[in-house]
Amino acid sequence: MSADDDRIPPEHPPPAGPTPATAQETRAAGQTATASTSRRARKKRATKRAIYDAGVRLFMERGYNETTIDDIANAADISRATFFNYYASKAAILHEIAADALEYARHTFDREFGRQGVSLIAKIRASLERFAMIVERNPRYYQTVFLDAMRSQAGFVAANRDAANKLIDVLTGHLRGAQQAGELNPTLDPLQLAEMLTGIYMYAILNYILKGCRGSLVERIGKAAQIFLEGCQAHRA
After folding, report:
1. Residues 172 and 66 occupy one common structural domain
2. What is the pLDDT of residue 120?
3. CA 155, CA 99: separation in Å to the nearest integer?
4. Residue 39: which domain range?
């Protein structure tokens, strides 16, 4: 057979291509593709959330070190391979929990400092005591979370650096506002005050846990806030 035998004879027209789609058909196809993408995105978010929730629950029940990736995968009803599609390691879940804790602290300071007609000490005490009440519910779990948050504050957890910086930035702004209102010594650096205040409550929580959770963390952290403010209040003439 010659090469010409493979060609369509000229008396036969070439096969017709697909009929051009109407605008309505094109739009419908696009909507179907979008819906399919949305479903996949929702499913991925749901799976990631299931893994995260399973990690939190197991860390709280058993402890971080006692929980394995297989434990988390089984609790989330996924395979070990699927776990690694969402998290590179068990520590990655912990980093996300710590980032959420930092974000919670930021929102708490925002809410408390936004209250009108309330003294500065009351705002700070209310914020720190809220953290303390949460920690008292499960000290072993929050020891791990706060250690990771402290590493984030120090810049050792790159994934959480933004959350740590946002917390400091927000607190700096609130303390600067307190200086402008005459509640804090205006000669002090508000950024340094924000760093000191976050260090005070994190170390107060950590020491409470390491010393066997004796006494009330709420009272301990309230006293720490009082000492901090007494040292940096505005001097009255």
Report:
1. no
2. 92
3. 12
4. 23-86
